[in-house]
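Database export, one record per block. Field names are fixed; values are copied verbatim from the stored entry.
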Amino acid sequence: MTKTMAFTTAPLLVTAYAGFRALDGLDGERGPGPAWTAGHLAFLAALILFVTVFLELRRLAGRGLFATATAVVGLVGAVCSMAQISVDIVVGALAADHEAMRAMFADVQSVPGVNLVVYTAGPVLLYLGLLVMFCQLALARAVPVWRAVAVVLAVLVSLLGLDALPAVGLLLCAALVPFPRRGTSPATAHS
């Protein structure tokens, strides 16, 4: 997959996850079942693609210490999110019903450090990395300000919870698609 496709596909997969999540909740509960699994697989694929996105954003930011540190923060957040989504997929596959899922999640989250790293603080680093990276790129005039604003809005909307993911996905689409163009230098990446 090309770098450009990663920028397009990652936010689209976030939006797909939101759609599957909405379908999964139509019966009043989420998981286990095909919509749960399909949605989580879509989100896992998005997170994997965000690795390419962060590496390319780092390149566009000049590969300096600050850009590298910001990319590392975002990548750590992506890895923590991948761990969370992987747990969700496994629990969804093993649980017979929603009550069994609830018990399995309680067991996983009772392991010291797991709740903090995998469910609360860790995943936030993905959004923090995106936010800081896009603000850095906008300040350096490597991307138009509106792209950074779209990322800031996506991060703020994400604070509303998982039900806000459709808007988050669409805002990330606005920020990332189509981006970057081949051969585009930071000084000319304003379209």
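Remark 1: Helices lie at 3-24, 34-60, 65-94, 98-109, 114-139, 145-158, 165-176.
Remark 2: The chain is about 75% helix and 0% strand.
End of record.
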